[in-house]
Each structure stands twice: as structure tokens, then as C-alpha cells.
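[Discussion] Sanity-checking designs against the backbone

I'm trying to build intuition for which residues belong where. Below is a C-alpha cell string of 574 positions. I'd appreciate it if someone posts a full sequence so I can compare it with mine line by line.
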């Protein structure tokens, strides 16, 4: 039930508009009740052929209820949907904040598809709690109470029978329906999740699907899951239709009983004949409030399940210490002490230590899979470390807010993301206040300005989805430019020039060193280009630092670095 506590807290922030939505919803139903009941009285009075002036008040009331019903319904839709979307935005912000703070790559137990499903589907389901659970439930209760009180003014017996049928149709029958369908609902959720995961597997692995000729296998699986889901829904529809029929029979029986009781009252002069048709029509109109109740139990259960799914992600990684400092980091010296990171049963990094004083440049080299990228992600808080610690400005990472830590870093990933917008807007993401001169200077330094000038729209050229309008090497240079534009003091580069040809790479590396001369830098690479400008080089193998020193010192050791250098020397022409 924790998710409902979160939603309740968000609802309190919108309390006035929530209350307004409920009031408008109740007024909508009561306007319909008033319209039909007043119309019945008007027709009954008209049958007695009174003077037209005697009908004026009833005519005005009928017109009022007819117009106000539409106005109230429209107002209820505006207020309820607007409030719901605001609260949904709050839920998304809350979830993203908690997910961002607690997510770590080495402890997460969900597949990527599961996370996508929970972030998108489960969060969106929670909006139904307001629109399909909270509002209809409160409106149905208030409408039933008000209608019962009004009917009791004419007949206590009719009001008692009415409220019994109202409770049965609006509250008991939906629970019976839910229990009946509960045997199918679990399997339905599993099938929907399997279908989503299958589609995601196809989309993310479309190249592998084509190469290994898996199209037929995935198609058959997708069709099979959809067929099973269709059969399941047919069974559910049969049950729903049966329950709707029972509901209709209950309403019809209630109207018949009302007509029989009021007929006796009219015959004994306990009720005026003009009200004989009013009560049945009033009852029929009030049942509009319980029409959505058949979905309330389902939506409540779906909201609860979605909440549990959301918390399952947060809880699986929630090892965040309490009472963390909010600190503006002023000194940018970093110390990594005896760091060890474990993934399942194996250590990715083992007892790793080094110092990164402010403005120092460190290169980390080694074979693929030795833990270079993992180290950078640990420094950004994306991966939890089990042993050792990282210090910045004299404080342990364990005592600082992760957002405060990340503010001082710029990170260039091996597969950086570009947005489907213009080149200029992709650059301004890093620094919205960057001037045209600053942008042009950085683009010249990374050897891409000439290419941009040749484009018809220049900086206003659309990159396309995943940057498809530029090559891999051009995207890399653009990402480096974006990283340089960010005003951070420490830059982490993970294979930033991997897609560049050797000639361009040398130029970019030289210019890049000039651009970051006043920043600290950790440069992860497997290409030993311009290593002589680095203050220190760390050579990693199987998660540990096996050698360290300057370029010349490491060559003189004739160790692993020397081997890597000789292997690349001819290829890199260095």
C-alpha cells in the first residue's frame, strides 16, 4: 500500500481541484436525476391540463437541469483530467528521482525490457487510480446518500429498498465479478508483459533477427501469445456480459418494486399521483453513478500491482544511507582507495587505488573487459562498490548526495546518446548559455566545423533518430564538443575517439588536450595515442592495476604496457 501513501501525498497538493472534480461529478449525476424526475412531474402535471402559467416553474427547472448537466460534465472532465495529469507528472518525477538515486547496474535484477515496462506502463496505470477508482467511488457514494435521503422524504420503504439494490449493484456485484475474473487476470498480465518483452526483443535485436533468421520464430511466438490473450479476453467478456445482465435485472426489479409500492401510496392518498412516475425515473437516473463501479475493483488492483512493481525496482537497489550531506563541492581532488566492485560472484575491479589531484590527466589502458568502463561508472555512482571508497573534496561518496557529485563531472560514454533534433540544440543541452563563438571554437577544435558548414542547414541540420544523418566518427566528435561545452571541472572520457581514423584521431586528441588543460581528466582508451601528454597512465588487467607511471617510464619497464605499445605501433603509426 506504499504507493497509495505517495499518491495521497501528491493528492493533498491538489486538494482544492480534487474536491472540485468530485463536486462537479456529483452535480452531473444529480442534474441528470433532477432532469428526469422534474420531467416526469412536468408531464404528469401537463396531463391534468392546468393553466400554462402553473407549468412555467417546472419548465424552467427542466431547462436548467438539461443545460447544467452538460456544463457540470464538461467542468468535471476539465478539472479531473487536469488534476490527474498533474498528479501523474508528480508520480513520474517521484519515481524518476528514486530510480535515479537507487539504480545501479551491478545490482539491478531486472531485464531492460522489464524496466522499460515498469517505467512506462506501470506509472501510466496509476493515473487510472484517480480517474477510474477514486473519483467514481466517491461520486457513487455521495450520489447514493443524497438520492436515498431525497427518496425517504416521499417513502421510507422505497428508500430502504433503493439503497439495498444500489449497494448490491454498485458495490457487491463488482466484487463478485472481480473474484470471478481473478483466475484470469494474473495470466492476462503475464501475457501482456510477454508480448511487450517480445516486441522489445525484436526491435532492439532487429539486426540479429535478420542475421540468424529468427523472424519466423519471433512471429510465431507473438501470434501464439496474442491468440491466448484473445481467448482469455473472450472468457472475461462472457462473465462481464453475464454480470451486466444481472445488474440490468436488478435495476428492472427495483423499478417494478418502486412502482408497486408507490401505486399503493397513491391509492391511499399518501402520495400525489403526479409523483408516481418521478421516483422510478429518479432511481434509474441515479444508477448512472454506479456504471463505472464495475471497473473500480479492477483498476484498484491494477494500481496496487503497478505500485508494487515500481517499488520492486526501487527496493532492489535501495541501499542509500540516510542523512546524506547537501554539499557544494569546492575542491576537486579525488582519491580512490582500495576499490572493489563485484558483479554476482565475480569481482570486476579488485583493490584498485589511485589519486586524481585537480587538473591532473590520467589515462587508463588495458584489454577489453578489464574493468576500465566500470571504474568510470562507479565514480559517477551508476555502479555500487562493495569494498573501499571514493573521496572528493575530502568527503566519502557514501556521505554525499549523488546529484552533488555528478554536477562536477562530464562523462562521454562509449555509446553516447544524441537527440532527434538539430546539431545546435544537441550542443546546447550541455550549456544553454553557450555563445555562437564558443560553439564554433569547440567545433573547430574537434575537426567537425568544416563538415557542418557544408550542410545545407548548418548547425540547424537535424541529426535524425540516433544521429543517423552523420557517421559514427562525426557523432563522436560532436559528443566530444558537447562535453567540452559543459562547465564541469572533471571530465571522464570512455573511448572518445574510438570511431575516428588515425589521422583525425591524432588531431582531435591534440586539440582535446588543449581544451581540457584546466580540467581534471580520466581518459579510458585502448588506443595508445598521445600518451606522452598524460601525467600518469594506469594499466589494468583483470580488474587490477598492474602497472602505473608515465609513458616513458612504462616503456622502460618492458611490461604489459610495452606489449600493448608494440602491438599497436605499426597499426597506429606512432
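Best answer:
Here's mine. Compare freely.
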Amino acid at each position: 500500500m506504499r504507493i497509495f501513501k505517495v499518491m495521497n501525498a501528491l493528492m493533498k497538493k491538489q486538494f482544492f481541484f480534487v474536491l472540485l472534480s468530485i463536486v462537479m461529478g456529483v452535480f452531473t449525476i444529480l442534474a441528470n436525476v433532477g432532469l428526469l424526475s422534474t420531467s416526469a412531474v412536468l408531464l404528469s402535471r401537463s396531463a391534468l391540463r392546468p393553466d400554462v402559467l402553473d407549468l412555467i416553474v417546472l419548465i424552467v427547472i427542466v431547462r436548467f437541469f438539461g443545460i447544467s448537466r452538460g456544463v457540470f460534465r464538461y467542468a468535471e472532465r476539465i478539472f479531473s483530467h487536469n488534476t490527474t495529469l498533474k498528479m501523474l507528472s508528480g508520480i513520474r518525477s517521484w519515481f524518476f528521482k528514486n530510480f535515479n538515486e537507487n539504480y545501479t547496474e551491478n545490482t539491478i535484477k531486472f531485464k531492460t525490457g522489464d524496466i522499460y515496462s515498469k517505467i512506462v506502463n506501470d506509472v501510466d496505470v496509476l493515473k487510472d487510480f484517480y480517474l477510474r477508482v477514486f473519483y467514481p467511488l466517491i461520486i457513487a457514494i455521495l450520489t447514493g446518500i443524497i438520492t436515498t435521503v431525497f427518496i425517504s422524504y416521499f417513502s421510507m420503504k422505497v428508500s430502504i429498498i433503493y439503497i439495498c439494490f444500489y449497494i448490491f449493484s454498485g458495490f457487491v456485484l463488482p466484487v463478485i465479478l472481480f473474484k470471478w475474473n481473478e483466475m484470469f487476470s494474473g495470466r492476462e498480465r503475464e501475457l501482456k508483459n510477454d508480448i511487450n518483452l517480445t516486441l522489445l526483443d525484436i526491435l532492439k535485436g532487429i539486426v540479429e533477427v535478420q542475421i540468424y533468421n529468427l523472424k519466423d520464430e519471433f512471429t510465431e511466438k507473438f501470434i501464439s501469445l496474442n491468440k491466448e490473450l484473445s481467448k482469455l479476453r473472450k472468457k472475461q467478456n462472457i462473465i462481464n456480459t453475464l454480470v451486466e445482465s444481472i445488474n440490468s435485472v436488478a435495476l428492472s426489479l427495483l423499478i417494478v418494486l418502486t412502482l408497486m409500492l408507490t401505486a399503493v401510496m397513491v391509492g391511499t392518498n399518501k402520495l400525489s399521483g403526479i409523483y408516481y412516475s418521478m421516483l422510478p425515473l429518479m432511481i434509474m437516473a441515479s444508477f448512472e453513478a454506479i456504471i463505472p463501479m464495475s471497473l473500480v475493483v479492477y483498476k484498484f488492483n491494477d494500481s496496487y500491482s503497478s505500485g508494487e512493481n515500481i517499488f520492486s525496482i526501487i527496493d532492489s537497489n535501495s541501499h542509500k544511507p540516510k542523512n546524506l550531506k547537501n554539499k557544494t563541492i569546492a575542491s576537486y581532488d579525488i582519491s580512490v582507495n582500495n576499490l572493489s566492485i563485484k558483479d554476482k560472484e565475480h569481482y570486476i575491479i579488485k583493490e584498485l587505488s589511485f589519486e586524481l589531484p585537480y587538473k591532473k590527466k590520467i589515462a587508463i589502458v588495458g584489454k577489453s573487459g578489464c574493468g576500465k568502463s566500470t571504474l568510470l561508472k562507479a565514480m559517477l555512482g551508476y555502479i555500487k562498490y562493495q569494498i573501499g571508497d571514493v573521496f572528493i573534496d575530502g568527503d566519502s561518496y557514501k556521505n554525499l548526495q549523488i546529484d552533488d557529485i555528478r554536477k562536477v563531472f562530464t562523462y562521454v560514454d562509449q555509446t553516447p546518446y544524441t537527440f532527434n533534433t538539430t546539431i545546435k540544440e544537441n550542443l546546447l543541452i550541455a550549456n544553454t548559455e553557450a555563445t555562437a563563438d564558443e560553439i564554433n571554437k569547440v567545433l573547430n577544435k574537434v575537426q567537425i566545423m568544416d563538415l557542418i558548414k557544408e550542410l545545407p542547414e548548418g548547425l540547424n541540420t537535424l541529426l535524425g533518430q540516433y544521429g543517423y544523418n552523420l557517421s559514427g566518427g562525426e557523432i563522436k566528435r560532436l559528443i566530444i564538443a558537447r562535453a567540452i561545452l559543459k562547465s564541469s571541472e572533471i571530465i571522464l572520457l570512455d573511448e572518445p575517439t574510438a570511431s575516428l581514423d588515425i589521422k583525425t584521431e591524432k588531431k582531435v586528441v591534440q586539440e582535446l588536450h588543449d581544451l581540457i588543460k584546466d580540467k581534471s581528466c580520466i581518459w579510458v582508451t585502448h588506443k595508445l595515442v598521445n600518451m606522452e601528454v598524460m601525467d600518469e597512465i594506469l594499466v589494468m588487467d583483470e580488474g587490477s592495476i598492474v602497472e602505473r607511471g608515465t609513458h616513458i617510464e612504462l616503456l622502460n619497464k618492458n611490461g604489459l604496457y610495452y606489449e600493448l605499445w608494440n602491438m599497436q605501433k605499426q597499426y597506429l603509426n606512432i
